[in-house]
Structure formats: structure tokens, C-alpha cells
Amino acid sequence: MRAVIAEDSLLLRIGVVKVLEAAGFEMCAQVADAEALLAAVEEHRPDIAVVDVRMPPGFTDEGVRAALVIRRQYPRTAVLLLSQYVEERYAADLLAANTSGVGYLLKQRVADVEEFAEAVRRVAAGGTALDPQVVAQLLVRRHSDPLDRLTPREREVLELMAGGRSNSGVAAELVVSESAVAKHINSIFTKLDLPKAHTDHRRVLAVLRFLGVATA
């Protein structure tokens, strides 16, 4: 898989590059600002762009805005945002714009080399990877929320789904069978009023509802 890295911190950028190269990624470009990122994506059309949330010149939301442009103009390029702190608004913006090939991780996760590389692979392949702290802060609760119908185990399953885990990944994490996970997921769909439909992906809709991201 081919990747572009946008990170203004030279040390972190070098670290991410080394991790991904060791994981088998081809590094197409390494840049330090949003403008250079967009130029690199246009030139190389990578499988994934790993992007710092805050970059020059303003160090506010340059990375997020560039990521939204990438998802709109180059939908085949997945985007993984890296942030020093949890900024749930940015994660919600990215998820609302597209529900596949997106990720949002705290920079501290890079230190866990294997887990970080696997998250990048998953996003590049069209999946999702959300930092557990991001998931925790994205949760929105309202009175009479259908989420209140879920059992503690179903909430655990849905939280792992929100983190990008497949059924087998959820089963391994909870030490249960895949058939048990499938039953929990079907129950979640029922309790969240998500009937079968050809035009909607119930798994995505369930995760978005869990994260409090509005859908049309």
C-alpha cells in the first residue's frame, strides 16, 4: 500500500515513516503542511494519507480541512488523522463526511508499533480506526435514547465496532464465539430501529448513532 505523511514535527514524521515502511508501506511523500499534503495526494494518489490535525501556518484545523478535501476530491484515498489531544468535533466532522476509510488516533498510539501499523492497514483497506479516548468523548446521550435499550455486553460490542473491529476482532477481544457476536449485533440493530434495507449499511448507521454523529 502507498502512503503520504503530513506532520510538522520532524521527529514524529520520521517515526511514523519508519513504522509504516517496516510494515510494508511504500512512502510516496513526507510533508509538513496542508498545502503540500494536497499537492502530494494529487500527484501520487496514495491509498492512505496520515495527517496531523494541527499544522502550519495557523496550527488550528488545517489538517482536518485538508482531510475533508481529500475525502471529497480523492475518495479512493483513505485518511487517518493524528492528534495530540482528543478533539471530538474534528472526528465527528470526518465521520459525517464519509463512513469508510477513516481513522482518528492520538499520537501516543504510534508508540505501539504493531497496533498502529494494523490501524493504518485497516483504514487503508476501507475500514475505520478510532482511538478509545475519542470514542469515549464522542458519545452523546439523550433521554429516551434507543442506546439505553442495549445491555452492557451489547454496548461493549458496539464500542468495539466503533473502533473498527470486525466480528472476529470483537470475538477475540471479548473471548466469545463469532456466532455470539453476530447475535449481539442483530440484537443491536433491532434495538436501534435499524431494519434491513438495500440502501443503508446498518453496521455503519449503528456506529454513527453510538458516536452521536448526525446522519441525513
From TrEMBL:
SUPFAM superfamilies: C-terminal effector domain of the bipartite response regulators (SSF46894), CheY-like (SSF52172). Residues 2-122 form the Response regulatory domain. One of its GO terms (biological process) is regulation of DNA-templated transcription. Signal peptide: none annotated. Pfam families: GerE (PF00196), Response_reg (PF00072). The modification 4-aspartylphosphate is found at D52. Residues 143-214 form the HTH luxR-type domain. Keywords: DNA-binding, Phosphoprotein, Transcription, Transcription regulation. InterPro entries: CheY-like_superfamily (IPR011006), NreC/VraR/RcsB-like_REC (IPR058245), Sig_transdc_resp-reg_C-effctor (IPR016032), Sig_transdc_resp-reg_receiver (IPR001789), Tscrpt_reg_LuxR_C (IPR000792), WalR-like (IPR039420). GO terms for molecular function: DNA binding. Gene3D superfamilies: 3.40.50.2300. CDD domains: LuxR_C_like, REC_NarL-like. This is LuxR family transcriptional regulator.
